[in-house]
Design brief:
Helices cover about 20% and strands about 35% of the residues. It is α+β, with helices and mostly antiparallel strands and about 425 residues long.
């Protein structure tokens, strides 16, 4: 089975855990044994449980590549969008990647779905049914229609011609009012969860009709000039040979704190305490200080280096305009080599806690306008400073003046405190180099 997972934008509705480069699908909130996993880790694990040989490609932006490789490793395929151009260009680029880069045949079936649904493994068994339905050549596009559990005003609806497990699609309806949604459901309407299957050659043919390109590299080079358009408008609503397969299993779109907490198996993640008078209260704490909640009802409390949210669960759905008004630098991020957390910001200094995963290293680089000091607090590794290598362990201090080339390798998980000193501290102040040996 070939699967393209669409990994969307920043998702500020889960602030303060999500930010401009850390989307909701990378937040580790779901218990898997003794550890926590993110939405993307959960979905990838479920796919491999159902089909270990599945080819998984994630269509995403440059800012998410480090988090993906950090959480999933290097086995997953990544189709990187140079910039955001909506779902049709993203799917066209990912499909071209499968054919021209991964050398997958034009006749192969592909299933496209979001990277962040909260589902069970029967959902991925249903994806296999979509792929099998495409193979029958009864339709050019086969959609998954999700059996509604209530008359939602948040989702679009697929109207089938009958109530069979597989039906021809009659029409599509945009997000309706509650009363209209109830009428749709009586007619057998299904939620449109943005899941569909097709043959690679079909989408590449549609792409060539709308875009002048020769192969993946050519499409990538022209990507910034492409018109922003959704896959629904560009392809789905224009296709006459289209079917829908019903899915009646569990499916949740965890786009807000209210819906996310409904899927969480425990009330406290991190350092938190609820007293006995709390009802339906969730604490999600990424900080090293305790949070105590007393006598609260239907509240979510979330704390991270980005800030602290205390909200009625229903009101948490309206968070976005308030978060958009907050102007600060990113305080936590995952990189391909590990992660960093900003501890303190001063006018002429920045203090960061850096964690490097075992076997990984930073780029060999320098800074023009700032000095840096590393204090190793745990683990073992090696530093290279202007070509000179030395082993380091807990308690060692390494200093780098402005212009000095430097990197660090982690032989085990390595944690250090990085202090940046200078009048012009900026993420843009970085020049990368190849190692000299």
């Amino acid at each position: 089975m070939n699967i393209i997972l669409l990994s969307g934008g920043s998702g500020k509705r889960l602030w303060p855990l999500s930010n401009d480069i850390r989307s909701k699908q990378f937040i580790k909130l779901f218990k898997n044994g003794e550890d926590y996993e993110s939405m993307v880790q959960r979905v990838y694990r479920q796919i491999k449980n159902v089909d270990n040989d599945a080819t998984v490609t994630i269509a995403t932006s440059k800012t998410q590549v480090s988090a993906i490789t950090n959480q999933l490793g290097n086995d997953v395929g990544i189709s990187v969008e140079p910039c955001r151009r909506d779902t049709f260009p993203a799917i066209a680029l990912a499909t071209a990647y499968l054919h021209y880069v991964q050398d997958i045949s034009l006749d192969e079936e592909v299933v496209v779905c979001p990277v962040d649904p909260y589902v069970n493994e029967d959902y991925f068994e249903a994806l296999k049914k979509l792929s099998a339905q495409v193979e029958k050549d009864e339709a050019n596009l086969v959609l998954m229609g999700i059996q509604p559990t209530y008359p939602s005003e948040k989702y679009g609806y697929i109207i089938p011609t009958d109530k069979g497990e597989v039906s021809v699609v009659s029409m599509f309806k945009e997000k309706p009012t509650k009363d209209v949604a109830e009428e749709y459901i009586k007619q057998g309407a299904l939620w449109n969860g943005g899941v569909f299957a097709y043959r690679i050659g079909y989408v590449l043919e549609r792409a060539h009709e709308l875009i002048d390109f020769t192969d993946y590299a050519d499409l990538y080079s022209k990507y910034e000039s492409l018109t922003k358009i959704s896959f629904d408008y560009a392809v789905v609503e224009k296709e006459e040979k289209i079917q829908v397969v019903r899915f009646a299993g569990d499916w949740k779109d965890l786009g807000t704190w209210n819906t996310l907490t409904e899927a969480m198996p425990e009330y406290v993640v991190g350092n938190g305490i609820l007293n006995e008078t709390c009802e339906d209260v969730h604490i999600i704490n990424e900080m090293d200080v305790p949070i105590l909640a007393m006598g609260l009802h239907d509240v979510v409390i979330s704390a991270s280096p980005e800030g602290i949210l205390v909200s009625d669960k229903e009101q948490s759905s309206y968070i976005k305009p308030f978060v958009d008004a907050i102007d600060q630098e990113v305080m936590f991020a995952e990189k391909s080599w590990g992660s960093y957390k900003v501890l303190e910001v001063e006018d002429e200094s920045l203090t960061i806690k850096v964690t490097l995963n075992a076997g990984h290293s930073m780029n060999y680089h320098s800074h023009k306008y700032r000095d840096e000091v590393w204090v190793v607090i745990s683990g073992n590794g090696r530093t290279i400073v202007d070509g000179m290598e030395q082993t380091v362990r807990a308690g060692d201090v390494i200093t780098m003046s402005a212009g000095c080339r430097h990197t660090v390798f982690a032989d085990s998980e390595l944690k250090l405190i990085e202090v940046q000193l200078g009048k012009e501290i900026s993420v843009e102040d970085k020049q990368k180099f190849d190692l000299e040996y």
